[in-house]
Amino acid sequence: MRKGSVVNSYIIITLILLISPLTFAQTASVRGFVYDKKSYEPMIFTNVYFSKTMYGAQTDGNGYFNITRIPAGSYTLMVTCLGFDTLKQTIELKEGEVRTLKLEVSKSIRQLTGITVEGKKGEDSTETKISVEKITPKQISGIPTVGGQPDLAQYLQVLPGVIFTGDQGGQLYIRGGSPVQNKVLLDGMIIYNPFHSIGLFSVFDTDILRTADVYTGGFGAEYGGRISSVMDITTRDGNKKQVAGVIGASPFGSKLMIEGPLKKQIDANQGSTSFIFSAKNSYLKESSKLFYQYIDTAGLPFNFTDFYGKVSLNAANGSKVNFFGFRYEDKVNYKIISDFNWKANGIGTNFVLIPGSSPVLVEGVVAFSNYTMVMREQGQAMPDSSQISGFNIGMNFTYFLGKNELRYGVEMNGFRTNFVFFNALNRKIQQNDFTTELGGYVKGKIIKGKFIFEPSFRAQWYASLGSMSPEPRLAAKYNVAKKFRLKFAGGWYSQNLISTNSDRDIVNLFYGFLSGPETLPVNFDGKEVKHKLQKAWHTILGSEFDLINNMTLNVEGYYKDFTQLTNINRNKVFDDNEANSDKPDYLKKDFVIETGNAYGFDVSVKYEFSRIYLWGVYSLGYVNRYDGIENYVPHFDRRHNVNLVFSYKFDKKLSWEFDARWNLGSGFPFTQTQGYYEMINFSDGINTDYTTSNGTLGIQYAPQNLGRLPYYHRLDLTIKKTWEFGERKKLEANLGVTNAYNRENMFYFDRVKYERVNQLPIMPSAGITFKF
Q: How far is 281 from 283, CA to CA, in rounded Å?
């Protein structure tokens, strides 16, 4: 991106902002919220427009819309959403007027016969929508569920560019980025580990989710502090009119969700207070001894418990404040790890403010979270441990300028890390640190004819490293024709936070965190290291094509250039002190510098019509790393990945549903074994008698990750039946099977025992859910 073009974009945005007061004085604005009349839950992605005009907008994640620069006059305002009756309202607008509305829509009495996926065609031509998937609970429920419990972790595995490394202890890798390079936000709060060890469940309860926006690359300047991807997850408010809930159970676990008003919403002109609470508990370790003894006579060693609660205070004009908190816990004990557990908790508040007469939306968050993990390996004298606790504060301002927008904000993060780790050579690596980050950004949205531009710029200050990172970014779309669109995104990204496991590790549940170290090598690959940050450059090109009605083809090619990465040093054998000053850095530094890249393309086809929903994804990806000595591919470098999802509803009342998902992935790389030898540890130094000392088994490895595991593939199936009892009560029973044809997918190979360990075999399940 040329510097001049970036500057010119910001001059245009500034001029638009300066002349906007005169424009608004001559025209009117209509803004407000759209709610479900029954629960008063905000209606997201809903069309609000003036009949027989070009003036309109779509509601955001808060149900908020803002239509500006409307000539004075009489109009018919319409609200349309699939599954709801169309709302019509006549309004008179005067010059300079800013009208705030609270609109209520009712569910259609007429039974719909289609499967509805949230999102509207209008977004295709007015939003850049590059490398982002906007997920709703309805979409998550449309894939096979484990134990009848739809979960975000299962849905993320079918997204373009997402690689999942296993049913047990698996992690998600998004377009070549490791988990620590993915920013996870829950209602604006930073979450450090969103997935449980079994890999089939996240910490989030689907029944309380509103939206989950997953950016696989090229995201705008409103997000900082990560160099690969972002998951921005929001929860819905509690029911403002009546008490409701969900109770569910299966061999995998049980759940409870309850919501309701603390101060009931009487009509649209009054405020309200509501709550929502969710609890999930896994008892798989115990239940597997009854139902899945063929997997492990000791049972499946996974247990977790999740709690989340929120209270929402809603003002009469639509402004609101939320107070929320969570506690997540995970425990695992199996062959390669004797004991591992982690705990996470946090509290926070976020708010949405609607100023009286200004066309601006103000949003903010203040949150604190803590994450602690402990792992004790077999034969290890002392456990590894890691703790990170920190706060994040942010405010965002959005101005609506007709079809254009201007958004800016500030963010401050601070976190403390306490880390103790022993590497393969039993050398201790320890760090206790506190760091602060400060960021500010500005982002514009300009629609000009068939073009959409979203230039943005972020300045990120890393206090502990004394480093400023300027980060220009740009997204754009060109509407070539009504059914064909081209798009682009790119920019600079930086990060301080690093992980305590290595990209070389195949299986490692211990995923601790620490701030970027200051004691990195002075030189890398013969060049001086000028900063301590991890940095990357993204370039993405894509296209969207509406093949036929209800079928869209999306193709995206991407390149991520990781210009500097920090990785833990698995080769450390000496302490980094004056006595070892003559030793090379790669043998004494706790951390090493690497570079790398990730590139490939993703193809997805989505079809929805009547009772059928189809979703197909193919991804081709390459990931490379260079540590200054050798080039290697990390263990998550999967070349080919295919996901096919099918959902079908049947019978007159659509009370039956059949879901299927098939995944195919090429083999992950691994390091081959060349031989074994007796390793003497020389515990007595030069006085060790190697002729009489008993050594341990040493392994001679081949070059890093030159081998490939077999292909992975798995079929999951679910069938559901729903019974309705009156307007509010619903009972759902389901039968499902994970790995339906019992494919023996390889997890890892125990080199010492010369034993192959597989992923989960065929696992049938049944569940029941009652909603009231």
A: 7
Distances (CA, A) of 662 to 109, 608, 615, 717, 743: 36, 18, 11, 9, 12
Angstrom distance (rounded) from CA 542 to CA 383 = 47
pLDDT of residue 618: 97
- CA atoms 525, 531, 533, 536: torsion sign: negative
**Top-level class of domain 126-662+706-771:** mainly beta
Q: Which residue has the tokens 């639509």?
A: 318
- Give the Cα separation of 519 and 577 in Å (integer): 12
Write the DSSP symbol of residue 685: G
Give the integer Cα–Cα distance in Å for 556 and 537: 16
Q: Are 280 and 253 in contact (CB under 8 A)?
A: yes
pLDDT tens-place string over residues 375-401 = 777 656 677 788 999 999 999 999 988
What DSSP assignment string belongs to 641-678? EEEEEEEEEESTT--EEEEEEEEEEPPPEEPPEEEEEE
pLDDT in tens, 703-755: 888 889 999 999 999 999 999 988 789 999 999 999 999 999 987 777 777 88
- Classified as helix, coil or strand, 64 is strand
CA–CA distances in Å: residue 392 to residues 433, 439, 463 = 17, 11, 15
Q: What is d(CA 747, CA 635) in angstroms, rounded to the nearest whole number?
A: 12
Q: Long-range contacts of range 460-464, CB-CB < 8 Å, 24 or more positions apart?
A: 460/224, 460/225, 460/494, 461/437, 462/435, 462/437, 462/494, 462/496, 462/516, 462/533, 463/435, 463/436, 463/437, 463/438, 464/433, 464/434, 464/435, 464/436, 464/496, 464/515, 464/516, 464/518
Which residues make Cβ contacts (< 8 Å) with residue 176, sequence separation at least 6? 228, 560, 562, 596, 597, 598, 599, 621, 622, 623
Residues of the chain with CATH 2.40.170.20: 126-662+706-771
Interval 399-447: pLDDT, tens: 988 888 999 999 999 999 888 777 655 666 677 888 899 999 999 999 9
Q: Which residues pair with 363 in a beta bridge?
A: 352, 396
Q: CA dihedral in degrees (680, 684, 688, 692; nearest 10)?
A: -70
Q: Where in the chain is the domain with CATH 2.60.40.1120?
A: 3-110
The answer to whether residues 263 and 272 touch, using CB atoms and an 8 Å cutoff, is yes
Q: Which helix (H) or strand (E) holds 5?
A: helix 3-26
pLDDT of residue 682: 64
Beta bridge partners of 31: 66, 100
pLDDT tens sequence across 579-600: 887 888 778 877 889 999 999 9
Q: Residue 10's pLDDT is what?
A: 47
Residue corresponding to tokens 């193809």: 603
Give percent helix, percent strand, percent coil of the chain, each to the nearest 5.
Answer: 10, 55, 35
DSSP characters for 139-165? Answer: HHTTS--BTTB--HHHHHTTSTTEEE-
What are the residues facing 632 on neighbouring strands? Answer: 625
Alpha carbons 415 and 390: distance in angstroms, whole number: 4
CATH number of 3-110: 2.60.40.1120
- Which two structure tokens, joined as six digits, stand for 97? 């007027």
Strand order across the 189-190 sheet: 132-135, 209-215, 229-235, 182-186, 189-190
Beta strands at 28-36 and 98-105: parallel, antiparallel or unpaired:
parallel
**pLDDT above 70 as % of the chain:** 88
pLDDT at res. 476: 97
φ, ψ (nearest 5 deg) of residue 416: -110, 135
Please report which confidence band the pLDDT of residue 119 belongs to, taking 50, 70 and 90 as the band edges.
Answer: very low
Contacts of residue 405, Cβ cutoff 8 Å, sequence gap at least 6: 398, 399, 444, 445
3-state secondary structure 585-631: HHHCCCEEEEEEEEEEEEEEEEEEECCEEEEEEEEEEEEEEECCCCE
Mean pLDDT, to the nearest integer, of 600-615? 91
